[in-house]
Amino acid sequence: MRPAIRGLALTLWAGVSLFMMASCGEPVPVVPAVQNADLCLNDFQTCVMPVLSGQIPRRGGAVVSCMDSSCHVAGGNGGRFTLGSDVSANFEAVKSNFVNFASTHDSLILVEPTQDNVSPSAAAGPHGGGEIFPGRSDACYLAIHNWISNQVTSQSSATCGLCTQVVNTSTDCGY
Questions:
Q1: Is residue 75 predicted with pLDDT exceeding 70?
Q2: Residue 72: CB partners within 8 Å, gap ≥ 6?
Q3: What is the tens place of the pLDDT at every residue in 106-151?
Q4: Is the dihedral of CA 86, 91, 92, 98 positive or negative?
């Protein structure tokens, strides 16, 4: 082998070896593909809206619904998160403003109601409704999280329709 080619081969081998040794033992980050990501509208209606409209016991004993007149309905105190009777409009509003496609647990729709139990996102302000979900294992939290995690490229995706339904928000969720 000619010296110039041999030197190039050795340099290349050394570079590859150094790269492999430097990354040895390091965790490989798993980043979900979010290009052209969408969420299932039908699953929002089937599995998320029942949570948002359900009665959930919060810390301190009060039973609340996101759609109570003082909360996230038009005229309520729910800030920029307003729910109405149009499920498609609710879907678009939640998806566009309260979902973090790259880091699902950091979605505001999950962070604010769990803010005292899970490390909050810096973007989350105080949730006026108090703590709703005791943590990430709460059935209502999981129903919303699973919906966000099931990112699809179209509404006809085979994974639409596989969401997690909560049987009874009054007994399966909250405190």
A1: no
A2: 52, 66, 78, 81, 82, 83
A3: 998 998 888 654 444 444 556 666 788 999 999 999 999 999 999 9
A4: positive
Two structure tokens written together for 25? 């033992």
For residue 144, count other CB atoms closer than 10 A to its CB.
Answer: 27
Q: Is 98 exposed, middle or buried (0-12, 13-18, 19+ CB in 10 A)?
A: middle
Question: What does each C-alpha distance from 40 to 31, 61, 83, 88 come to in angstroms?
Answer: 20, 33, 18, 11
Assessment of whether the complete model's pTM goes beyond 0.85 = no
Q: What gap in Å lies between CA 51 and CA 144, rounded to an integer?
A: 8
Distance CA 68, CA 58 (A): 13
Q: What is the DSSP letter of 152?
A: B
Nearest Cα to 132, choosing from 149, 118, 150?
Answer: 118
Measured between alpha carbons, how far is 68 from 56 in angstroms, rounded to an integer?
11
- What percent of the chain stands above pLDDT 70? 69
Residue 132 amino acid letter: I
User: Around 67, how many Cα atoms within 13 Å sit in the side-chain half-sphere?
Assistant: 14
Q: Is the CB of residue 146 less than 8 Å from the CB of residue 128?
A: no
- Which tokens sit at 88? 């498609």
